[in-house]
Amino acid sequence: MSAITRDEVAHLARLSRLALADDELDHYATQLDDIIAAVARVAEVATDDIPPSSHALPLTNVYRPDEARRSLTPQQALAAAPAVEDDRFRVPRILGEEA
Amino acid sequence: MTTTHTVMPYDEALERFEPVLGLETHVEMGTTTKMFCGCSTTFGAPPNTHVCPVCLALPGSLPVANDKAIESTIRIGLALNCTIAEWCRFARKNYFYPDMPKNYQISQYDEPLCTNGYLDVEVGGKTVRIEIERVHLEEDTGKSTHVGGATGRIHGADYSIVDYNRAGIPLVEIVTKPIPGTDRLAPEVAKAYVTELRELLRTLGVSDVRMEEGSLRCDVNVSLMPRGSSEWGTRTETKNVNSLRSVERAVRGEIERQAAILADGGRIVQETRHFHEDTGATTSGRSKEEAQDYRYFPEPDLLPIAPSPEWVAELKSELPELPTARRRRLQAEWGVSDLDMAAMHNADAIDLVEATVAAGVPAADARKWWMGELARRANESGTPLADLAITPEQIARVVELVSSGALNDKLARQVLEGVLAGEGSPDEVVEKRGLRIVSDEGELSSIIDQVLASNADAADKVRSGKIAAVGALVGGVMKASRGKADAGRARELILEKLGVSE
């Protein structure tokens, strides 16, 4: 039984705004299945005394003081933007007309 | 746009249905810097001047949590009687929308920092306990402006422009458990909760809680069930509710709208609705049924938060006196009834009365002036009480002039009027308007003689022992002196002149 279905891959592609053709869905479903199976092998060595972790370092409470630092200028911030208007990032239409 | 104009009148809706509420409040923390970088949080800066590689999600940048924001969130949790997690993490909330340059928002998911608390609010003289589900920390989003199209709204816009100054400002989300049983008081309970929460947050000093600037925002969940049913109905979530009055209106409006649909045999769609401040109406937003799949997962760029019990205990012991406790203390100190205290609370007069008492005025007098003459004038001009152009010290001076006999209440009201009109200090107004009580015995005496002469009938009655008739004569003296006579002294002099003693 596969770890990820073709439908799930299609769903993830839609969430990521990736337009995948039918043959690509087949292709990535197989690849992702292999990747998940490889990562799942970690579970084979995990035992009850090893809590699940989301981080490689055994650290907690790493904070910074609430002190202001210099920000970028708008020119620097917008330098790599594909489109700019009124010192703001211009982005394509977000939603179409309401149904 | 789907706008439903059919509503059922509120009273009828409440005869047939019972509402269940839920409130989600977002509060921008008043920290100096953003949640995960050192950019300023100051409101109203030119666009994209408070941005850096971290809050713009430039490659290679890494977030580090702001210690003050963590501390503030724990203090909010403690003030709301929550349990503080001993270990919890941030989570990524993934979505495809340009208000966050990362394409995800750092939030908390199944490990909120604070859980299971409550806030007691008072509505109609009774205490309602609002259970708190969770308090968690996240980051605010950027501000989008939608360009083109007919309405300036996102729907139909040609494109949008984004300012990321607000992106990354620490945002605390406070979520209630469902609130059943409020019945017809539902709109008031919702408003009282947000009011009390705002006051609590202000007392903690964690946010400037300005609803009009968006530093405190409220989403209102409402569902209806038929009376006698135990199964809750489908809820809607109304966003964009940006004033206390709007919280009340949004709940009421949603009850009226849903009742009409349900009574008509329709069903409520689980959806987000947008509140419009101008009309008080809500319109449909995106349907929750096609809501995003946020694919939350623990944020790998940040380390777990593990507040030590010692630190939490220290923060708890350092909490300031909270609004409810303060009101209870002041009520006892001032010796006023529950009803009077509630009236002062509703009029936002408690701070003012407290400051006036601190300026040396007896509590009863301070309350009398703020809740009487000054409340009336604030109401007339439609200004909040606190915005009236008069200070507690000036009121203290007026009260002093009354108690020393230099003014009576009527003249004191004129002095207040003069101060409010910008004519200067109470003493200056007294001087300019010539408002001192006529205490010159000679002048008072001659006024009395005139009044006795023109009211011979009343004078005779008093002479014959009907002392009650003296009231009309004192009234005559007050009228003749245009309110400037000392009524008590006038009475004494009249009785003396008529050879009567009490």
Q: Which quaternary structure do these chains form?
A: heterodimer
Identify the most extensive interface between protein chains: A-B, 39 and 58 residues
Helix/strand order of chain A, N-terminal first:
HHHEHEE
Quickly give the structural class of chain B.
Answer: alpha+beta
What is the radius of gyration of chain B computed over CA atoms, rounded to a whole number of angstroms?
Answer: 30 Å
Strand residue content of chain B: 15-25%
State the end-to-end CA separation of chain A.
Answer: 40 Å
User: Unreliable segments of chain B (pLDDT under 50, ≥5 consecutive)?
Assistant: none
Determine the mean pLDDT of chain A. 88
Strand arrangement in the largest pleated sheet of chain A: 2-3
The major β-sheet of chain B equals: 9 strands, mixed
The strands making up the biggest β-sheet of chain B line up spatially as 3-6-7-10-1-11-12-13-14
Q: Count the helices of chain A. How many? A: 4
Number of helices of chain B: 16
Low-confidence stretches of chain A: none
How is this structure best summarized?
The complex is a heterodimer of chains A (99) and B (502). Chain A has 99 residues and is mostly helical. In chain A, 38% of the residues lie in helices and 9% in strands.
Write the layout of secondary structure elements.
The complex is a heterodimer of chains A (99) and B (502).
Chain A: H1 6-15, H2 22-40, H3 42-45, E1 63-64, H4 74-78, E2 84-85, E3 88-92
Antiparallel strand pairs in A: 2-3
Chain B: H1 10-16, E1 17-28, E2 65-66, H2 67-79, E3 83-84, E4 91-94, E5 104-107, E6 114-123, E7 126-139, E8 143-147, E9 159-163, E10 170-176, H3 186-204, E11 216-226, E12 236-241, H4 244-263, E13 271-275, E14 282-287, E15 297-298, H5 309-317, H6 323-334, H7 338-346, H8 350-358, H9 363-381, H10 392-403, H11 409-420, H12 426-433, H13 441-454, H14 456-463, H15 470-480, H16 487-497
Parallel strand pairs in B: 12-13
Antiparallel strand pairs in B: 1-10, 1-11, 3-6, 4-5, 4-15, 6-7, 7-10, 8-9, 11-12, 13-14
